[in-house]
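Holo prediction — heme C.
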Amino acid sequence: MTKCISMAGLALICGTGVLLAQEPAPKSTTAGVFTDEQAKRGAAAYSANCAACHGAELRSSDREIPHLTEKSFKFGWIGKTIAERFEFIRETMPPKVEKKLPDQVYLDIVTYILRFNKIPSGDRPLKADVEILKQILIEAPPD
Ligand code: HEC
């Protein structure tokens, strides 16, 4: 059905039809859901916005501030969806600062943290679409 009627509810149905026609979202990070280039951009944004607290190598020197690698990554990230981590960071980090980074920058930082923790990269950049991010599970990288 290609006809779109301009009433709010029906237009939504029309939009859903378009979405269904696209490729399904990957189900886990094993598929390689972001690019190295994106993770590199994320590294620069991490240095500028997060490293002062969480450390250059994702290891913080302050006991009050969690690492973002090793055990902290294993327990805080593996088994969650990318959306969960993306939304948490977007809503709360850096603490006590009004949201100030664009969504795509937050997501690039998330891909950097994933890459740093040996989650595989792939051919296509990840977009800041929460509905898609909700479907992608963070899976432990191969040993
Ligand atoms: C001013 C210091 C500071 C800055 C800057 C900061 N954080 Fe945090 N972060 C904290 C503190 C303190 C906590 C622990 C308290 C909490 O969870 O709210 C935390 C917690 C976190 C957690 C949860 C860790 C876990 O294991 O549950 C993540 C993820 C995180 N920060 C990511 C980031 C990212 C990404 C940035 C940059 C956009 C950032 N933080 C910037 C201080 C900071």
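READOUT: The chain has a mean pLDDT of 88.
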